[in-house]
Specification:
There is one protein chain. With 281 residues, the chain is α+β, with helices and mostly antiparallel strands. It folds into two domains: 114 residues, Aminotransferase class 4, branched-chain amino acid transferase, N-terminal domain (D-amino Acid Aminotransferase, Chain A, domain 1, 2-Layer Sandwich), CATH 3.30.470; 149 residues, D-amino Acid Aminotransferase, subunit A, domain 2 (D-amino Acid Aminotransferase, Chain A, domain 2, Alpha-Beta Barrel). It is built from eight helices and 15 strands. The strands form two sheets. Strands 7, 8, 9, 10, 11, 12, 13, 14 and 15 form a nine-stranded mixed beta sheet that branches. It is globular. Bound molecules: N-(5'-phosphopyridoxyl)-D-alanine. The site of N-(5'-phosphopyridoxyl)-D-alanine (PDD) has 15 residues, from helix 6 and strand 13.
Length: 281
Amino acid sequence: MTENMPGKVYLNGEYLPLSEAKISVLDRGFLFGDGVYEVIPSYSGQLFRLHDHLKRLKESLGRIRLNLTYDSEKWLEILTPLLDNNKDQYIYLQITRGVAPKRDHAFPKDPKPTVFSMCSDLQPFAGVETGVKALTMEDSRWELCNVKATTLLANILLRQAAIEQGAAEAILHKNGYITEGAASNLFAVINDVLVTPKNTSEILPGITRKVILELAEKSNIQTQEETISIQALKTASEIWITSSTREIVPVIRLDSEAVGDGKPGIVWHKMNHLFQQYKRA
Ligand code: PDD
């Protein structure tokens, strides 16, 4: 077992070694991608912004009409035994509509959700200090991007295409406007203002995004939640992609052009510092 592999995992009320955690081939998560998930960082055993992650989970469950009424206490009870107080880690939590007796697109009568969670070590993302390359791509995903759904085939294909072209992320656009990354939100500094696309059903309401907006407000960094055209993005002096596992990554090349002076920018340095302080606190 490699160092980053989870040891024991949680599955439907039990803690098991990873190799013993098994799910039926009739699970609707397997057959239809009929489920939602969360990725929650944990710094030194403390789940980061748990309330926000659980709120989004509840909203995702509500939007796909999956009834699971665990409260925060129940989630803490489930997740805490997976954590190591001496490490920075992240919880992966997935809930599907469970096993149905036969494969039918319509919901089963009395669904028993499958609840699965594992914990992995959080590895500092290599591109955080140097910056990364990203590529713009047409956003070909479905219409409910505010649901943190496990139907990630489009995201996977987009991220893979970016990686095969030497980039770390695909920055997606729809009808000429930027939405988000294949597995991240997007920020840009345009005319000295920190801009990020508005929370609509076209993007995932990222928790890292939310933290950045809060930190910016406290530090008098001017922000705007506004549409960003592809042309406007090309004029940005800074572009960042943000997520729970990569935190705030500066994009230093977009398609074939340098972003700003081709180095992580001054606003990124400031925000990354604020973020690191905040997360340790
Ligand atoms: N994904 N947008 C999409 C499509 C994402 O998949 C993610 C994160 C984000 C950022 O959200 P947050 O800041 O809450 O992590 C935005 C996780 C990390 C993943 O799928 O592994």
